[in-house]
């Protein structure tokens, strides 16, 4: 058994989570279900947060983005060292740190363009005309490895992208590791964007795809109308009434016409889109707007579960995680919209704290990377084959000072 650290800052951009887990290798060669040990959450430094938000909106120069990449790496390193201090563990005890970086840009695959790429095409044409996906995650791993003196694995999406996969969501490998003995079972992560995974002992039967918005539009409305970062416990939505015409317009978003596996980015449902919708219905009380956005997220999630999972009739449990589980109104609406036979529960019931499951995921992926284990799920992402996701940077103490 070994210790690993996972770090996460998702599309909600509401802080950096850091977790300490213990895991090993099962007789089947895969990591054992991770055992959660400790966790902390840190706010983004006030001087850094505006720069990252500007990066989301493509408002930084290349020079500024380059420096920010190192700055974000230092923020992740600080989260890791703070966790070590909190847990009373030394860096020498940690096998690896895993994190994806802060996503600032993402393009989903264009399946029709990808299928049209000729076998004679030059490799670069996959991205100039072939519709292959791409993305950018910042948080320089060399900075993290140097400042923590711990092996670091990051940027898990690019190999899956190069193999034609969506590279998002990434939760399916952790779900396979944690739930393969309970399969088939479905999991739901509600971050800024919501996604569903189907865990199965047979990875060919697994699925993973984004449902649509999770918290991102709700959070935006709360900040715009109430000066709050999020709707605590869904209290604002509970005071409002759903406005059917607005809900219908939201459900006509072109994202929902994309075939699975599909992935979304915060720009699909981000500030510009949210403001356009909110301006259209500006005559409504703010509580009604938040209530409608909350129902929108619930509808996106439940429609995806019911309509897009081939073996849905075999699944009677949906395990939720992510920041959205703290929104009681959202969870209540999801429960009402799900088939009666389906139990909505939380990952906490399985030893994986809902708030920290994303960070646990990256720690588990990093352990697999260190051991050369295929940690993508082609049936879920659409990748052409299995690959080892993540870029490994060795720490300074592993430098060999020899001429041999």
Helix-strand layout with pairing:
Blueprint lengths: L1 E7 L7 E8 L11 E8 L6 H8 L5 H26 L6 E5 L3 E6 L3 H5 L9 H4 L5 E5 L2 H8 L3 E3 L3 H5 L8 H9 L5 E6 L2 E7 L7 E7 L2 H11 L8 H5 L4 H8 L19 H10 L5 H23 L8 E5 L6 H10 L5 E4 L10 H14 L7 H4 L9 E3 L11
Parallel strand pairs: 1-4, 4-7, 8-11, 11-12
Antiparallel strand pairs: 1-2, 2-3, 5-6, 7-13, 8-9, 9-10
Task: Give an account of the 3D structure.
It is a single chain. The protein has a six-stranded mixed β-sheet. Strands 10-9-8-11-12 form a five-stranded mixed β-sheet. A two-stranded antiparallel ribbon has the order 5-6. It has 15 helices and 13 strands. The chain folds into two domains: 2-167 and 357-398, Nucleotidyltransferase, domain 5 (2-Layer Sandwich); 179-354, ATPase, nucleotide binding domain (Nucleotidyltransferase, domain 5, 2-Layer Sandwich). The two termini are 32 Å apart. The protein has helices at residues 49-56, 62-87, 111-115, 125-128, 141-148, 158-162, 171-179, 216-226, 235-239, 244-251, 271-280, 286-308, 328-337, 357-370, 378-381; strands spanning 2-8, 16-23, 35-42, 94-98, 102-107, 134-138, 152-154, 185-190, 193-199, 207-213, 317-321, 343-346, 391-393. It is an alpha/beta fold.
């Amino acid at each position: 058994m070994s210790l690993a650290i996972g770090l996460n800052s998702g599309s909600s951009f509401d802080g950096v989570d850091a977790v300490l887990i213990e895991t090993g290798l099962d007789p089947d060669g895969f990591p054992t279900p991770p055992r959660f040990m400790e966790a902390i959450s840190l706010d983004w430094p006030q001087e850094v947060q505006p720069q990252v938000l500007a990066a989301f909106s493509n408002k930084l120069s290349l020079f500024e983005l380059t420096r920010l990449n190192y700055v974000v790496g230092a923020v992740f390193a600080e989260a890791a060292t703070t966790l070590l201090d909190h847990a009373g563990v030394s860096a020498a005890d940690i096998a690896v740190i895993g994190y994806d970086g802060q996503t600032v840009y993402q393009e989903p695959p264009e399946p029709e363009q990808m299928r049209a790429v000729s076998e004679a095409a030059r490799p670069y044409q996959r991205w100039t005309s072939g519709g292959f996906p791409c993305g950018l995650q910042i948080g320089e791993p060399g900075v993290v490895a140097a400042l923590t003196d711990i092996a670091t694995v990051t940027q898990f999406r690019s190999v899956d992208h190069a193999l034609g996969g969506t590279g998002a969501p990434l939760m399916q490998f952790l779900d396979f590791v944690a739930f393969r003995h309970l399969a088939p079972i479905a999991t739901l992560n509600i971050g800024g964007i919501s996604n569903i995974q189907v865990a199965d002992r047979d990875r060919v039967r697994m699925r993973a795809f984004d449902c649509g918005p999770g918290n991102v539009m709700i959070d935006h409305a709360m900040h715009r109308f109430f000066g709050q970062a999020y709707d605590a416990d869904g209290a604002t939505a509970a005071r409002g009434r759903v406005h059917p015409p607005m809900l219908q317009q939201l459900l006509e978003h072109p994202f929902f016409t994309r075939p699975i596996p599909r992935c979304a980015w915060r720009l699909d449902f981000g500030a510009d889109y949210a403001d356009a919708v909110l301006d259209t219905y500006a005559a409504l009380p703010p509580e009604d707007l938040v209530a409608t956005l909350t129902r929108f997220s619930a509808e996106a999630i439940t429609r995806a579960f019911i309509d897009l999972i081939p073996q849905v009739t075999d699944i009677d449990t949906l395990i939720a995680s992510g920041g959205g589980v703290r929104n009681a109104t959202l969870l209540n609406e999801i429960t009402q919209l799900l088939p009666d036979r389906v139990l909505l529960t939380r990952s906490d019931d399985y030893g994986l704290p809902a708030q920290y499951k994303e960070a646990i995921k990256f720690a588990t992926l990093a352990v697999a990377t260190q051991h050369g284990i295929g940690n993508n799920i082609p049936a879920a992402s659409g990748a052409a084959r299995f690959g080892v996701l993540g870029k490994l940077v060795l720490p300074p103490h592993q430098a060999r000072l020899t001429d041999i």
